[in-house]
Amino acid sequence: MKTPTSLLAALALAQPLNAAEAQKIETVTVIGNRAADYTAPDAAASTKNGQPLIDTPVAVQIVPSAVMLDQQTSSMAEVLNNVSGVTPMFFLGGAYERFVVRGFTQSLAGYRNGVLQPFTRFHLANTERVEVLKGPAALEYGMSDPGGVI
Q1: What is the mean pLDDT of each run of 10 residues along the chain (150 residues)?
Q2: What burial class does residue 85 get, using C-beta atoms within 10 Å of its C-beta: 0-12 exposed, 13-18 middle, 19+ buried?
Q3: Which end of the chain is more exposed for a tag (fewer CB within 10 A), N or C?
C-alpha cells in the first residue's frame, strides 16, 4: 500500500501544468476600513500634564474606549485584563472592586477624573479610557500604593 505522500506526488506528476495555465492568477484587491482607533496619544489623567506618551518617563498603560466596546466589557476587572501587572481582587463578595498592582494590594480603590473613589464598584458607562500609572510615580496623586494607581 502506498503512503499518502507518494499518492499525492503521483497525482501531481500525472497532471502537470503547462506554462499558460500557471500564469493565469487573478489579481486580488483587499479593501478595509479602520473601524476603531486603539491609540492613545497622551496620558492626560495619569501624568497631569498632557505630555505625549513617547516623552513620558513613567510606565503608563491606557485602555481606550474602542477596546472596551470591542471586547464588550462590563466591569473594571474585565478592562484591566488588558493591563500587565494588574490583577482583580474582589472585596466583600464582589460588592467593591480592589486590585493588585505590581504585587501591592491597593488600599484605596482608584481615581475617577482625578478624584479618589474609595471602596466603590466602577461603572463603565460613558468611560472614555482607563489609565494605569505604574510604580512609584503614582505618588504624584498623594497617598497611594507603591505598585501604582488606576
Answers
A1: 58 61 74 74 68 75 88 88 86 73 74 70 82 80 76
A2: middle
A3: N
